[in-house]
Description:
Elements: E1 2-5, E2 10-14, H1 26-31, E3 43-47, H2 60-69, E4 78-81, H3 89-97
Amino acid sequence: MAKILPDKDALYIQLNRVLENESGDFAKFVSDLPTPQSSTLSHLIIDLRTNRGGDAKLLQPLVHYIIKQWPYLKPGTIFVLTSNYTFSAAVHLAAELE
Length: 98
C-alpha cells in the first residue's frame, strides 16, 4: 500500500510482504508510485514493521526507484520503520537502503 501524506509532504509505503500479488507484479506496484518531481513530496517513509519477508529478488525495482526518483534527499528525509516482526527480505531491504 502506498499513499501520500499531504500534511507531512511524504510518500508512505507500507510493505507487509515482499511477494508478487494477485493484482499484478511487484515491479508494476513500484512503477505506479508517485515521484517527488510530479508532486510536492519531500519525505519518503517505508514501513516494514509487520513485514515477515518474502522474495528478496523482487526488491531491485524498489531500490532503483528510490535511487532514481529520490536522489536529492538529504539525511532525515527517508525513514524506514522496522520492528521485532521485520524479517528476511524486509531486513535485506532495510540494509540496502541504509
